[in-house]
Amino acid sequence: MLGAIGRAFRTPDLRRKLLFTLAIIVLYRLGSYIPAPGVDYTAVQACVNNNDFESGAFGLINLFSGGALLQLSVFALGIMPYITASIITQLLRVVIPRFEQLHKEGATGQAKLTQYTRYMTIGLALLNATTLIATARTGALFGNAPGCDNLIADETWFGISVMVLAMTAGTGLIMWMGEQITERGVGNGMSILIFTAVAAGFPAALGAILSEQGIDIFVIVCAVGLLLVALVVFVEQSQRRVPVQYAKRMVGRRMFGGTSTYIPIKVNMAGVIPVIFSSSVLYLPSLISQFGDPEDAWVQWIGQYLTTGDHPVYMAGYFLLTIFFTYFYVAITFNPEEVADNMKRYGGFIPGIRAGRPTAEYLNFVLTRITFTGALYLAFVAMIPLIALVLINANQNFPFGGTSLLIIVGVGLETVKQIDSQMQQRHYEGLLR
């Protein structure tokens, strides 16, 4: 492995890309610890060290920001506004024909959609920064813990405006850094930054397990983590290959077609998006309950069943929502009718299946059953932190499970593939032999 890394750094072009990517990562992590203007840094650090607020939507955003959210730094919002904007853009393709038309126009249309996503990211960043600062002023950011309601040193309108602009600018800078990695570095820039933020929390999470649970539980957790990583790698690489043949056809004096290929349908086509959706939806009841009277029956019911992850009702809801959102997202991102029409247009067909509508029905049949397996897999991985919360009293950002594990393995596999392909282009030998 070390020899393979050495070969990568001995290649001039690849070395420049790797060093550029590492430099951007260092700047990104540095910005996560620079406090926003007007923040009482001492009070924030005291609240971070004395509280374990790692659940709900704030815990998820804090995970994606690499801990910058609870630090109230200039990069507090992390990459979450961009993720949300990208998801909204994909969903709008279903309801806005203009977006679907741009998606089909190739590079020009994709550039326009990317521009819309950037504008939406800035708008969401303004909204999220305002919400975050308002939450920090009331003390709700740390669950109304004692001493955590005076985190903003300058509460004038000018001071608050500067904080909002600083956090919004931080999100814009993160978005720019991600695009620079994509253009001049290695891998997908946004994915690399998310990977960096999530991986940054692994040492602290494992250290907490070692100090609180002892060496025995720590070794067991590491062993189980390795097994889970192997399982996730196996499933993420698994796919159903639907064979496709193209008929021979004459265009002028040249013969085209007559080749065989396949349509790869992955077991997990939805990625980590369903888990994010499920976490966000389950946080909404507890967010709404904060505006109610603590003596009301519905507020108490939400606090008992839908606030902590160790309750069976919360676990069941999380499991079912993950399955539902897996089917929902796959239905949006993969359209069997569109695939069947494209195959028919270019003379392709699945052996034994007629072109057109029968092909779409067959693809839908295969996709539905493959997605069921993928949905169960995602629900199982998403439940691991909740099970760890019950068994060893770990927090909900347990490192080997949920969004953390899916992001680490998924981005790691994709980045290694890109490095391997670039090395094969230059040396006819990949990263790993």
Automatic annotation (TrEMBL):
UniProt record, GO biological process: intracellular protein transmembrane transport; protein targeting; protein transport by the Sec complex
Primary localisation category: membrane
Keywords: Cell membrane, Membrane, Protein transport, Translocation, Transmembrane, Transmembrane helix, Transport
Membrane-crossing residue ranges in chain numbering: 18-36, 116-136, 156-178, 190-211, 217-235, 256-277, 315-335, 370-392, 398-416
Protein location: Cell membrane; Membrane
The keyword Metal-binding belongs to this UniProt entry's keyword annotation: no
Topology of the protein relative to the lipid bilayer: Multi-pass membrane protein
GO (cellular component) term, any one: plasma membrane
Gene3D superfamilies reported for this sequence: SecY subunit domain (1.10.3370.10)
InterPro entries per the UniProt record, alphabetical: SecY (IPR026593), SecY/SEC61-alpha (IPR002208), SecY_CS (IPR030659), SecY_dom_sf (IPR023201)
HAMAP family: SecY
Function: The central subunit of the protein translocation channel SecYEG. Consists of two halves formed by TMs 1-5 and 6-10. These two domains form a lateral gate at the front which open onto the bilayer between TMs 2 and 7, and are clamped together by SecE at the back. The channel is closed by both a pore ring composed of hydrophobic SecY resides and a short helix (helix 2A) on the extracellular side of the membrane which forms a plug. The plug probably moves laterally to allow the channel to open. The ring and the pore may move independently.
Subunit and partners: Component of the Sec protein translocase complex. Heterotrimer consisting of SecY, SecE and SecG subunits. The heterotrimers can form oligomers, although 1 heterotrimer is thought to be able to translocate proteins. Interacts with the ribosome. Interacts with SecDF, and other proteins may be involved. Interacts with SecA.
Homology family: Belongs to the SecY/SEC61-alpha family.
Protein name: Protein translocase subunit SecY
Name of the gene this protein is made from: secY
